[in-house]
Amino acid sequence: MPFSSDFDDVYHIGIKESCEKAGAYCERVDEQIFHERILDRIYNQIAKADMIIADMSGRNANVFYEVGYAHALNKPTILLTKDAADIPFDLKHFPHIVYGEQLTVLRQNLATKIAWFIENPLATNPKQTVEIELYQDGVDVSSGKASCSPKPGYYPWPELTLANRSFRTFEPGELRLAVVTRSGEFPYCELPTGQMQNMDTCRMPDGGYFHMLPVFDTLFPQAFTSCEFGLRYSNDQSKGSTSITLRVFTNFGTRDYDLAIQLS
To answer: What domain of life (predicted)?
Structure first.
């Protein structure tokens, strides 16, 4: 909804109290304290939210755009409006709570919908898309055609480019990358000089290794960053080929990429 005093009663009495009645926590961005740009904050909060409630009254262009973004992320979304005439053609096939000037109508219908969403999370919260792409030597890793070969006299050293294809900003710690190996393979993961103290490695129950790479700097929408690491292997793993899993972690989900590794 627009940040306007005209909607204060709708928000505080109609929406927020309905959420509390249903057992959900509700917050609007203008109630928060933050240091980033407000648009970055809005997009990040939409990405992190379990549910979006949007008042479409008045055909506000910003609200329409934010609802479109929530839909692109497959977020469970409840749409409200005072007047059915405000629903544009492209949104008429989505259910709306039309409450007119009666907040009691809004409270009754909204509390019921929120409660149903909470009780049916799997039906209303499909897996989110992690919009981070990985490239090795310019080849999209998700294509299955990317691979890494050892440098002469050395071991494999992937040099990855990460592309943020989303419209959200990832602050340090909100985007992480781990290297997951098969059982007994690549027990050591080496970083460029000066970065090894930022590497976390553990052996997994299946005998594979989990190497968490260092924290990335802030990654803005449609921006790129890079990382590199070496994969050291034992003598009995010095020939043939294998693969590693590159696991991307974000606040709203994970995504795995398989990268082929040539050993000789």
So the answer is: Bacteria
> Percentage of the chain surpassing pLDDT 70?
91
Q: What are 187-212's pLDDT values in tens digits?
A: 888 888 766 566 889 988 888 899 99
Same domain, 185 and 207: yes
CATH code of 192's domain? 2.60.40.10
Is the pLDDT at 23 greater than 80, yes or no? yes
Q: Provide the number of structural domains found in the chain.
A: 2
pLDDT at 126: 47
Compare 198 and 103 and report the one with higher pLDDT: 103
The answer to whether residue 63 is domain-embedded is yes
What would the DSSP string read from start to end of the chain? Answer: --S-GGGHHIIIIIIIHHHHHHT-----GGGS--SS-HHHHHHHHHHH-S-EEEE-TT--HHHHHHHHHHHHTT--EEEEES-GGGS-GGGTTS-EEE-TT-HHHHHHHHHHHHHHHHH-HHHH-PPPP--EEEEETTEEGGGT--EE-BPTTS-B--EEEEEE-SSS-B-TTSEEEEEE--TTS--EEE-STT-GGG-EEEE-TTS-EEEEPPPPPPB-TT-EEEEE-EEE--GGG-SSEEEEEEEEEETTEEEEEEEEEE--
Q: Are residues 143 and 113 in the same domain?
A: no
126 within a domain of the structure (yes/no): no
